[in-house]
Amino acid sequence: MAEFSSRIPTSTSPEQQEQALRVAVRIAQALDEANCEDIVVLDLRRLSQVTDYMVIASGTSDRQMRTAGVRCEEAAEELGESTFRKQSDSGDTWIVLDFVDVVTHVFEPVARAHYDLELLWGDAPRVEWTPNRPNPGARRGGAADA
């Protein structure tokens, strides 16, 4: 019987992995610039066959969440990446942006608590990132204070 490994090997090159990390961090910064809260970047490279990084944030209104989504797309385009798929629920409580190697979720806080992706991906290491804005306050959910 073949031995099952709980670690999923990554099939991308080191350059692709570095690019995915740059995109994930830049998206987190764009969410911060859009005044989203509790921004977390999860490293899923060894846990998921679907994506390398997941970025999760909370927005305070449907308008802010839509603006944040546009800023994420612009941030990814700055680094040469395009949106593979974009979807939102009918109640404007959840926006998903798929950049293939990075998947971004922008939630209304109640929806975020309901789906609790951080718990679902609890084994995933959090990636430290630094906001671009001066004096960002406590909006960096997974970042270390610098």
Please outline what is shown here.
The protein is an alpha+beta fold and 146 residues long. It is built from 4 helices and 5 strands, in the order αββαβββαα. The protein has one domain (14-120): Beta Polymerase, domain 2.
Structure description:
The protein has one domain: 2-Layer Sandwich (Beta Polymerase, domain 2), CATH 3.30.460.10. It is built from four helices and five strands; from the N terminus they run αββαβββαα. The chain has helices at 14-33, 62-78, 109-115, 117-120, and strands spanning 37-43, 53-58, 85-88, 94-98, 102-107. A five-stranded mixed β-sheet has the order 1-2-5-4-3. Mean pLDDT is 86; it is low at 1-9.
Q: How many extended strands? A: 5
| Strand arrangement in the largest pleated sheet | 1-2-5-4-3
The second-level CATH architecture is 2-Layer Sandwich
Give the overall silhouette.
globular
Number of helices: 4
H/E element order: HEEHEEEHH
- Would you tell me which CATH topology applies? Beta Polymerase, domain 2
The biggest sheet amounts to: 5 strands, mixed
Q: Class, according to the CATH hierarchy?
A: Alpha Beta
Helix residue percentage: 25-40%
The CATH homologous superfamily corresponds to: Beta Polymerase, domain 2
Spatial gap, N to C terminus:
49 Å
* Radius of gyration (Å): 15 Å
Low-confidence stretches: 1-9
Domain module count: 1
Beta-strand percent range: 15-25%
Derived structural class: alpha+beta
- Overall mean pLDDT stands at 86
